[in-house]
Every structure is written in C-alpha cells, then in structure tokens.
Amino acid sequence: MPDFWDDLVPRVATAQDRILVDEAMNAARAGALRSSYISVWLSCAESLKRKFKEASQTDAAAAKVVGEIADKEAKHQAIDAFVLAEAKKYGFISDAEFTQLENIYAQRCIYGHPYEQAPLLA
C-alpha cells in the first residue's frame, strides 16, 4: 500500500509550499502527529498568504488584504481565520475547499494545545 504522503507531496504546486509539507510528512512518519497536523495547517495558511502577496502586485483588493495581514501580524494578532475567510471572498478557494480548510484550522486549534487529545493515525 503506497504511503499517503507519497501521493500528496507531488501535488503541492510550489517549492515554497513543499517545505512545510515535507516537515509535516517527516513529523508524521516519526510519530509526531500533533506536530504534523499543525505543520499541515501552517502550510495551508502560508500558501494562501503567499497567493495574496503575489496577487497584490497587480490587484488593489489583494494589496489591501496583504496590508491587513501585516497590520494584524505587527499587533501579534492571529491571522489564520482572517486569511481563510479572505481567500474564500477573493476566490482563491471554493466553498468546498473553504469548509475543508476551516476544519483543518479548527482541529489545529484543538491539537495545538498539549492538554487536548492528539490526532490519531488513521
């Protein structure tokens, strides 16, 4: 049976995005499932941020989102939910993809706390 990661990693479009996916893969293979899950979310969020940065070069709406992200980060505010909602509004992700990513984000929030149950290997 092929490894899940063997199928996933080649589908990651950019080398920058592959860095965090590779870290997630290595963490999962080492049995560090909490770290792996968090890295998967970080990969998704960073990829969306990067898409906004690229689009901001030619689009004022994307530039506004990039500015809001920078403001929130400068104030040490969480940006995950904001980036996810803006990506849906902007059209980077579909309604179905939004629902899937929102679930990954919600579980990341749960698994990110050591007093919560860690994810299980399925």
Short description:
The chain has about 120 residues and is mostly helical. The protein has six helices and no strands.
Bulk shape: globular
Unreliable runs, pLDDT <50, ≥5 residues? none
Instruction: Outline the biggest β-sheet.
Output: none
Proportion in β-strands: under 5%
Strand tally is 0
Q: What is the average per-residue confidence, as pLDDT, rounded to a whole number?
A: 88
Write a structural description.
This protein has 122 residues and is mostly helical. The chain contains six helices and no strands. Helix 5 packs antiparallel against helix 6. It is globular and about 45 Å long. The two termini are 14 Å apart.
Task: Give the SSE layout.
Elements: H1 4-8, H2 15-29, H3 33-55, H4 60-74, H5 80-90, H6 95-111
Helix pairs in contact: 2-3, 3-4, 3-5, 3-6, 4-5, 5-6
What labels would you give this structure?
globular; 122 residues; mainly alpha
